[in-house]
Amino acid sequence: MNTTKKGEKRLVELDALRGIASIFVLLFHYSGFSGYNLNFLVVGVTGVDLFFLISGYVIFMTLEKINTGTDFVISRLSRIYPSYLVMMTITIACIIFLGHGNFPSIRSLLGNITLLQPFFKTTYIEDAYWTLTVEMQFYILMWILFMTRRLKQIETLGIIFVILVQVFELITRNYFPESKIYILPRSYFSIISYFQLFFAGIIFYKIRTNSGNWQRHLMIAICFISSIMLYSDSGKSHFFISREAYSAMLLIYLSVFYLFAYRKLRFIAIRPLLFFGSISYCLYLIHDKAGYLIFSFLRPRLAINPLLLTLFVMGLMIGIATIVTYFIEIPAIRYIRKNFRSKLQPGYNTANTILK
To answer: 355: helix, coil or strand?
Structure first.
C-alpha cells in the first residue's frame, strides 16, 4: 500500500510528477531549436513551480522522520552535490570546447559550488542553477525551524510569512519600485518569491497525512493568490507567458496535488513518467546550456533537419542524465547516507527514500 507512514513505499505519484516537471522544462528550453512554431510549449517554463511544490512536500516529510539536524544536512548534501558537481563539470567542458568560452573564475566557481552566487556577485554557470539557490535557502530555513523545534508551528509561521511577503511586495512595489528596499531582498534571498509554493507542498502533506480542514484549504488558496501576485517578480514565467496562462498552469498543479493528497492520483504512476522522474534532477542540471551548445556546434556540421537534430540532442541529454543518475548519483547517495548519517529511526527505509 502507498502510504506516508514510516517504512512507507516510495510515493510513486511524486516520482511521476517529477517526471512531468522535467519533461515540461526540457520541452520549454528546446521549443525554439527546431525552427518550427512550437510556442505552445513555453508553458513548460512553469515546470519549476511544480518542482517547488514537490520539494515542499518531500522536505517536510523528511524532517518528520529524521533524528538530528545533521541527518538532514547529510540527506540534502548527498542528494544535491554528487550529480551537481559532475554535471557542472560537463557543462564547463561544453562551454570551453564547444562554446569557446573561458574557464570560470575562482569567484564564479566558489559561488556556483556553494550555491551562493548572489553573495559572491557572480553569474550562474548554467542558468537553471538559480532554482538550486532557491532550494538551498528553503533547506536552510527548514533546518532552522527543525533545530529550534518550531516545525509543529509551521502552518502558523508559514502563512504569516506568506502574508508578510505580500504586504512587503505591495508597499515596496508601489512606493519604492526603484529602491534597494525593493530590489535587494530578492536579489540575495530569492526564497522570498517562492516560499508560498514550498509552503503549499507542506500543507498538502498535512492534508494527506492528517485532514483537509477549511483552514488548510484557505492556506492553499492564499498560496495560489500569492503566486499570481508575485508573477512579475519571480522566475521566468513572466517573460514567456501571460499572467492568465501562468495562473491556469498553477491551478492545474494545485488540482493535481489535491488528487494526490486524497490518494486519487495513482493512475499517473506509469513507467515513462517514473523513468523521467528518476533522472529528473540530472536531466534538469545538464539539459539547458550544454544542450544548446551541442546543438549549436552540430547544426552547421550536420546537414539534417533541425527537428531531428533537436530530438537527437534531447536523446543525448537524457542518456547522459541516465548514466549519471544510475552510476554516480544513486551509488554516491547510498554510500554517503550509509556512512555519515546517524542511526535512522526504526522502519525508516533508506532505499525507499534514496532520491528524495
So the answer is: coil
Buried-state track 266-301, b at ≥16 Cβ within 10 A, e below 16? eebbeeebbbbbbbbbbbbbbbbbbbbbbbebeeee
Domain that holds residue 242: 14-344
Query: Is the full-model pTM beyond 0.85?
Result: yes
Number of domains in the chain: 1
| Residue 294, all three cell numbers | 551541442
Does the structure show a pLDDT above 70 at 318?
yes
Residue 333 included in any domain:
yes
Which pLDDT score, from 0 to 100, does residue 4 have? 42
Cell of 309: 537534430
Q: Is residue 230 predicted with pLDDT exceeding 50? A: yes
8-state DSSP, 325: I
For the ranges 83-87, 118-122, 208-212, 231-235, the one whose mean pLDDT is highest: 83-87
Q: Which three cell numbers stand for residue 349?
A: 527505509
Rounded Cα distance between 81 and 101, Å, is: 24
Q: What φ, ψ does residue 230 adopt, rounded to 5°?
A: -90, 10
